[in-house]
């Protein structure tokens, strides 16, 4: 569940989840590990997903530069998203939407879900 904290910088949006009930040091370490690996994947491929299953909990992450950004431009936007994302720590989840990229982490797997699933909008039956 996401808190009401939405920060807006031009077209940038940050959605911070609720605070983790786990040790903040443990969750922050795992989130930073996921963010580091994602930055390497995004730098080389413009997108990537990575998870850490290190106990006592899991952290799932995803990063993606939009089609108009490549190489160094993608890297700059993604680094900016990573910096903004850290304003939510030690939240259990976070999403950052920038003009050029998207960055997300969560303590549950969201890889096969859509934004509609997360918004709890029911599909047509």
Automatic annotation (TrEMBL):
CC terms in the record's Gene Ontology section: plasma membrane; plasmodesma
Ranges in coiled-coil conformation: none
Pfam families associated with the record: Stress-antifung (PF01657)
Major localisation: other
Domain (Gnk2-homologous): residue spans on this chain: 9-110
Organism: Rubroshorea leprosula
Topological type in the membrane: Single-pass type I membrane protein
Superkingdom, taxonomy of origin: Eukaryota
Database matches in InterPro entries: Cell2Cell_Antifungal (IPR051378), GNK2 (IPR002902), GNK2_sf (IPR038408)
Entry keyword set: Cell junction, Disulfide bond, Host-virus interaction, Repeat, Signal
Similarity annotation: Belongs to the cysteine-rich repeat secretory protein family. Plasmodesmata-located proteins (PDLD) subfamily.
Protein name according to UniProt: Gnk2-homologous domain-containing protein
Subcellular location field: Cell junction, Plasmodesma; Cell membrane
